Amino acid sequence: MAQVSGMMLGRRRFLVGGAALGAAGVAALTGCTSNDDDTAENANVSTGGGDNAAPGKQITIGFSAPAADHGWIGAITTNARAQADVHSDVDLQATEGTNDLSLQISQVETLINDGVDVLVILPHDGKALTEVARKAMDAGIPVINLDRVFDSPLAYRTWIGGDNYGMGVAAGNYIAARLKDNGVTNPVIAEIPGIDSLPLTQERSKGFSDALAAAGLKVGPRVPAEFTVETGERAAANLLQAAPRIDALWNHDDDQGIGVLSAIDAAGRDEFFMVGGAGSKDVMELIKADDGVVKATVTYPPSMASSAINLARLVAQGRTLSDLVENDVPSSITLASATITKDNVDKYLKFGFAS
Fold it and tell me: Per residue in 285-303, is it b (16+ CB within 10 Å) or e — as a string?
């Protein structure tokens, strides 16, 4: 289990507290520091620029997200709290993270009744929380929809999130290029997605298959997991047992990747290379070491939570992004998915979140 020992240490660190991944994409909102634990000074925050750096009217931002039972979600909450602390004109009213849909709806209703100025919501299920988000909007409380999108644009003022389709494209392009460079013909390309019923998973898989198809390739064995260590290990074990040969593997999520790599080690398989997803610090350290199957990961930055807090502040104070000509904050912001390899890992390593 040599290649996963460091990742398991990272998993234990997450039980104490999450961390975060840095990203580019919204120049006026980004600016990051390293993170090794769940402290404000180690989260991804921006101090702003231009007129937006100056304090405005005092506002209260309500924040709701799922339970931090996953390294990426832990980083989301860490970043949101740390970014709010940067602004002297922001009071953050954060609910306790939960995966109980009824409880999250109730928590958001409480924030609405408390009269917060603006809401930042990462819904456990976008469809299920659409109605309560619309209730907030109807009450004159702008909603910043973070990552998992609500069913109706009437439920949010601005959406900000990662590029799930682009994430799949990035993984597919990297795999296709590496196989071509290695002279591999008729490759067997495996895929371990997250929860298959989620639109984000479907978008990632569509981007992956489209990118491979453009290179004249196709997805081979595919076994879904559920974004957890345990399901990642189970899915990988089943896939490896069914496929005696694999040339490349894309695992959608670096947190479930802990289990995937455990199964790979247990099976003694190393004839293929693997690409991860999201950009955890643990996976980036494996990429840097370059002595195992992991050769790349494609980012899905939880620093989007920091940007969401900044967007909420600007919307509530009637400001806009400092580099835009328009008077208003955009209604949609999609962050780019970068491909991290041993050639650029040092640029991204300090932004990795703990799995």
Answer: bbbeeeebbbbbbbbbbbb
For residue 62, the enclosing domain spans 18-161+303-335
* Whether residue 121 sits in one domain with residue 150: yes
- Read off the CATH number of the domain in which 95 is found: 3.40.50.2300
In a domain, 95, yes or no: yes
Domain for residue 7, yes or no?
no
Q: What is the 3-state secondary structure (H, E, C) of the chain?
A: CHHHHHHHHHHHHHHHCCCCCCCCCCCCCCCCCCCCCCCHHHCCCCCCCHHHHCCCCCEEEEEECCCCCCHHHHHHHHHHHHHHHHCCCEEEEECCCCCCHHHHHHHHHHHHHCCCCEEEECCCCHHHHHHHHHHHHHCCCCEEEECCCCCCHHHCCEEEEECHHHHHHHHHHHHHHHHHHCCCCCCCEEEECCCCCCHHHHHHHHHHHHHHHHCCCCCCCECCCCCCHHHHHHHHHHHHHHCCCCCEEEECCHHHHHHHHHHHHHHCCCCCEEEEEECEHHHHHHHHHCCCCEEEEEECCCCHHHHHHHHHHHHHCCCCCCCCCCCCCCCEEEECCCEECCCCHHHHHHHCECC
Give me the sign of the Cα torsion angle 14, 16, 22, 26.
positive
Structure confidence by residue, pLDDT tens digits, 148-207: 999 999 999 999 999 999 999 999 999 999 999 999 999 999 999 999 998 899 999 999
Question: How many domains is the chain partitioned into structurally?
Answer: 2
Task: Judge whether 91 lies within some domain.
Answer: yes
pLDDT digits (tens, 9 = 90+) for 277-305: 999 999 999 999 999 999 999 999 999 99
pTM: 0.84
User: Is 13 among the domain residues?
Assistant: no
With both helix axes pointing from N to C terminus, report the angle between 5-16 and 254-267 in degrees, rounded to the nearest 10. 150
